[in-house]
Design a protein that fits this description.
The complex is a heterodimer of chains A (about 350) and B (about 70). With about 350 residues, chain A is mainly α. Chain A is about 65% helix and about 5% strand. Chain A has 13 helices and 6 strands. The radius of gyration of chain B is 17 Å and the shape is elongated. The chains are: A mainly alpha (about 350), B mainly alpha (about 70). At the A-B interface, helix 11, helix 12 and helix 13 of A face helix 1 and helix 2 of B.
Chain lengths: ~350, ~70
């Protein structure tokens, strides 16, 4: 694919998904309100009810340009099918979880097989779905013949659950994932993975189109349907585009949060099943870190223990700035690929 | 210093530190570990270094957390 064609498709994917998500979010918001599909915004003193399932709008906005691109570029259809199937399967797990909450471990078990479309695609068409030689900065392509395949099941389940676990404040998921998608898109461009650039741009457009509804104070919640889908697509495209390392760096705040939660709750537990909350809301609306030793350690609790009590907007700003740091490190990592002779 | 700036400085510094350490391990693996004689030995030592990095990240993050939760 030439630069002009890539530029055209990347811009089209971004704009198409942005507009489609923006308008479908309105429809989802009104549908969820009418059907009583609402969730409590626990970080507000008056505990308002907010319509949920906003992830369906992200999914719609993402799928349309990806399908359009695959129809116009038959040589990349198998990779597009992999991305579409992964997005649909992860959304199915998410929507089930939204209606009937799954246990933490069950959710992980259900997200591990989401890597199967990638593996199947590789076995059916190894020349079009090339995986197994991740690129890292300074060094270049790694020789991980066996270990890569052992770690592959975590490539989609890891980001899916990590994004899901940090989706705790208004607007945090779309803003953090959008910032994280900038270095991954840039790296895919450096590596010459044209269709990965298009998938990333479609996802970025979706998240930007969705943000006005989810930003503080939220009018629409993403739900597990959205956070699991966004994380899965990030992981899936990272494997297809060879941007695994940059994705790992870009998602460092998410992964650090997941790592702290898993280690301090002694296993994978669904957040709704954890009795002692990591943060508490004061009467004046400020958030503070729990001093209960049984409460799990989360990134937000860590932030609040460093800063002292803060408003929800300040916590969102702190998380955004942390993602800017991670995004900058990921961008530097991507630029360093060139030093590794890629 | 205000809360948000303080958090960004401390945790941003922490992320940068973890990232630098990971790059250092990548270089060590490429320059030293990949010259080891057998594939099994290379895999074991290489993976050992990455696991050690992960364990360090975990322990050091907990250390930072308890340091600040004790003060607040």
């Amino acid at each position: 694919m030439g630069w002009v064609e890539l530029g055209f498709w990347a811009s089209l994917s971004f704009l198409f998904s942005l507009v489609a998500t923006f308008y479908s979010s309105k429809i989802v918001m009104s549908f969820s309100s009418r059907r009583g599909m609402v969730a409590v915004d626990v970080h507000k003193p008056n505990k308002p009810l907010v319509p949920t399932l906003g992830g369906l709008a992200i999914l719609t906005g993402f799928l349309l340009p990806v399908l359009l691109f695959s129809l116009s570029n038959p040589e990349s259809w198998i990779r597009a099918i992999i991305v579409v199937v992964t997005a649909l399967l992860s959304s199915a797990v998410g929507i089930y979880d939204d209606f009937k909450p799954l246990k933490g471990l069950t959710k992980v078990y259900l997200t591990v097989p989401l890597v199967l479309p990638v593996m199947l695609g590789h076995f059916l068409s190894p020349d079009k779905v090339v995986i197994g030689r991740p690129v890292v900065p300074l060094v270049g392509r790694l020789r991980l013949t066996i270990i890569y395949w052992l770690l592959l099941p975590l490539a989609v389940a890891g980001p899916a659950n990590a994004v899901n676990m940090l989706e705790v404040f208004n607007g945090v998921m779309p803003i953090m994932c959008s910032i994280g998608l900038v270095p991954t898109t840039l790296t895919a461009l450096i590596l010459g993975k044209g269709d990965a650039v298009i998938y990333y741009m479609a996802l970025l457009g979706s998240l930007v189109g969705y943000y006005p509804y989810n930003k503080y104070p939220s009018r629409l919640f993403t739900g597990n349907v959205g956070s699991l889908m966004v994380g899965s697509v990030i992981g899936c495209v990272a494997v297809l585009g060879g941007t695994e390392f940059v994705t790992l760096v870009a998602l460092m705040p998410h992964l650090l949060n997941a790592f702290l939660v898993i280690s301090t709750t002694r296993g994978l537990k669904e957040r709704r099943s954890i009795k002692s909350r990591p943060i508490r809301v004061r009467d004046n609306g400020l958030l503070e870190a729990s001093r209960d030793p049984r409460a799990p350690i989360t990134l937000t609790r860590l932030i609040l223990s460093i800063s002292g009590p803060m408003s929800e907007q300040e916590v969102i700003r702190a998380l955004t700035l942390l993602e800017v740091v991670a995004g900058t490190l990921a961008t530097v990592s991507g630029l360093m690929y060139m030093l590794g002779g890629i | 210093m205000r809360g948000v700036e303080r958090v960004t400085l401390i945790l941003g510094g922490l992320l940068t530190f973890y990232w630098s350490l990971l790059l250092l391990i990548l270089v060590v693996v490429n320059e030293a570990v990949l010259t080891l004689p057998t594939s099994l030995l290379r895999s074991l030592v290489g993976m050992g270094l990455y696991v050690a990095w992960l364990y360090f990240v975990y322990r050091f993050s907990l250390y930072i957390f308890y340091k600040f939760i004790g003060r607040s």
